[in-house]
Amino acid sequence: MQKTQKNTQTIITTVKNSTISAYDRGLNYGDGFFTTAKVVNGQVEHWSHHKARLIECAARLGFPLVDIAELEAHIAKSIAEHTLCVLKIVITRGEGGRGYGLPQTCNVTVLLSVLEYPQNYSRLVNEGISLNISPIKLAAQPLLAGLKTLNRLEQVLIKKALQTQPCDDVLVLDYNNNVIEASAANIIAIKQNKLFTPSLNECGIKGVYLQSLCDKLAVDFKCVSIADLLEADAVFICNSLMGVVPINRLEQRSFDIVHSQLLLNKLLAKEAKC
């Protein structure tokens, strides 16, 4: 275990025998946040957006400023020799405080993990993904909406229910039956050559890949129903590890993934000319 302490920030590069305090607030209360990134040839893809996510989460949750320069130095050392892997960055508020109360002095703990890249992602990108509707719905909490916090029990229940469903992934709704996301990815769709995605003002995570896509294309964030997706010309899921993956089936509606990719590529090509 490599451990470096500076002011209020402790960075731990995890290995097999790494340890974290039993009193860490991330473990006890989910008091923290994280991001998961794809690494290609020793470089973190979409790093500027991952960095922005960490900074936003820290600000909205009342964390001290993360020392990004120190973090980047540790990341560079950890991934330098990897051609393809997954980098996970977990940040907690560390130890301290009585019960839920915040500690007077906050020693932020940063956990860096380098993980194997999932082998099935390439197949899913080529073959597309089937979606059914999850029986687990997301609760509204505007204060946390859009953030990737450590409070992920809803997603654990979603994945548990998915084990009994005949599909690759699920479409997750809120309690008003609005479409929010997939189990671990954002939803985007094309209708009449316009790209739209569900509003995330009440719940859900605004993914890094979705944000990078917004840099290239006009994306309409709006209230989306199941009917809107069933009537769309193409539907995709996207996250920072898989990129954009076409949906081949949503419930009983089938999509031609070759046509879906063509529609998306046309939008990207049109925007590139502007």
Our Rg estimate from Cα atoms comes to: 19 Å
State the CATH class of the largest domain.
Alpha Beta
* Topology, number of strands: 15
For the largest beta-sheet, the strand count, sense and barrel status come to: 9 strands, mixed
Domain module tally: 2
Name the CATH superfamily assignment of the largest domain.
D-amino Acid Aminotransferase, subunit A, domain 2
Determine the CATH topology of the largest domain.
D-amino Acid Aminotransferase, Chain A, domain 2
| Percent strand | 25-35%
Structural class: alpha+beta
* Low-confidence sequence ranges: 1-7
Estimate the global geometry from the Cα principal axes: globular
CATH architecture of the largest domain: Alpha-Beta Barrel
Percent of residues in helical segments?
A: 25-40%
Element order: H for helix, E for strand:
EEHEEHHEEHEHEEEEHEHEEEH
Arithmetic mean pLDDT: 92
Count of helix runs: 8
Distance between the termini: 49 Å
Write the layout of secondary structure elements.
Layout: E1 2-6, E2 9-13, H1 25-29, E3 32-40, E4 43-44, H2 47-60, H3 68-79, E5 84-92, E6 108-115, H4 121-127, E7 129-133, H5 153-162, E8 169-173, E9 179-182, E10 186-191, E11 194-198, H6 208-216, E12 219-222, H7 226-230, E13 234-239, E14 243-250, E15 253-254, H8 257-273
Parallel strand pairs: 2-6, 7-8, 7-14, 11-12
Antiparallel strand pairs: 1-2, 3-4, 3-5, 5-6, 8-9, 10-11, 10-13, 13-14, 14-15
EC number: 4.1.3.38
Pfam families: Aminotran_4
Organism: Pseudoalteromonas translucida (strain TAC 125)
